[in-house]
Amino acid sequence: MSTAFRALLLEKNDAGVSASLRELTDADLATHAGDGDVVVRIAHSTINYKDGLAIANKSPVVRKWPMVPGIDGAGTVESSTHAGFKAGDKVVLNGWGVGETHWGCLAGKARLKGDWLVPLPASLSTKQAMAIGTAGYTAMLCVMALHAQGVKPADGEVLVTGAAGGVGSVAIALLSGLGYRVAASTGRASESDYLKALGAGEIIDRATLSAPGKPLQKERWAGVVDAVGSHTLANACAQMRYRGVVAACGLAQGMDFPASVAPFILRGVRLIGIDSVMCPQAERRVAWERLGKELDLAKLDAMTTQIGLAQAIDAAPRILAGQVRGRLVVDVAA
């Protein structure tokens, strides 16, 4: 039986970095991902912002060459020496350095560590799991953080920045489904109807948040899910209600944080960092269980576009340019 499968492969040489569709084998997996104890036949993957950076070589995401990118994957266990998984199990993978230091999931197969895997919720298909992906799973971690800090729907509006992107789209759907009033910040006015259909009650031009602002501004938000960083995050903090909570998970505008301590020491604002990559297993399993129960799958379908593996290379610069609405699912067999 042939062990060949297709994969997107990133290679680096004196001429630079190249991305191409290649045919690989189980022997290649053993050579480059031999520390994995579970072989997964990947059905679907996705293109996240980090994948876009890696494929387009716009940031030093990849730390080991050659590399199969793809920080997310969903599929069926083909073989396993890990006690927690057996052949036939449906699983999901998010993060853990996959696609950066360990071969990833934009491929027909991936050899992964069982300690990284989460059982696929019974209510979700592999396509739906990748429509959620790291972006949606991160959005749920943000929602869980707001809830853990005591932010209730009755406390006031929740702001979602980068609203038309993957994290923002899922965050709006989750928060509105839980009864929160959501304001969506976006630079794409053309996406207003899309964002309102997901549950946003108000659309805010991102330009009102993305420029330098005062350290303290009029109180408005009970909570914030921020995927943008930089001045947007600083202004969101400056506009928080007393003891409001900000869940920060992204850097689409920048890694800087040009703010002051004023919101934190005068209004008791709480800034919570959300890391999806190394998040402990117990917490990520709760996140996926809640996604399987709480996310409106009709809204998920509305924010999802499916592409084939051969289209993933061209998709990378588009996601970096903010030209992709919602989520891109990659059918690795197409």
Descriptive account of the structure:
- This protein is α/β, with parallel strands linked by helices and 334 residues long.
- Helix content is 31%, strand content 26%.
- Strands 3, 4, 5, 6, 7, 14 and 15 form a 7-stranded mixed β-sheet that branches. Strands 10-9-8-11-12-13 form a 6-stranded parallel β-sheet, with helices on both faces. A two-stranded antiparallel sheet has the order 1-2.
- The protein is globular, with a radius of gyration of 20 Å.
- It starts with a strand and ends with a strand.
- The mean pLDDT is 96.
Catalogue the unreliable spans.
none
Shape from CA axes? globular
- Over the alpha carbons, how many angstroms does the gyration radius reach? 20 Å
The share of residues in helices is 25-40%
Structural class: alpha/beta
Element pattern in H and E: EEHEHEEEEHEHEHEHEHEHEHHEHE
Largest sheet report: 7 strands, mixed
Rounded mean pLDDT score: 96
Q: How big a fraction of the residues is strand?
A: 25-35%
Distance between the terminal alpha carbons, to the nearest Å?
21 Å
Q: Work out the helix count.
A: 11
Number of strands: 15
In short:
With 334 residues, the chain is α/β, with parallel strands linked by helices. The chain has helices spanning 26-32, 49-56, 126-148, 166-177, 192-198, 207-210, 230-238, 262-266, 281-294, 297-302, 312-320; strands at residues 5-13, 16-24, 38-46, 72-80, 90-94, 109-112, 118-119, 158-160, 182-186, 202-205, 221-226, 240-248, 270-273, 304-308, 327-331.
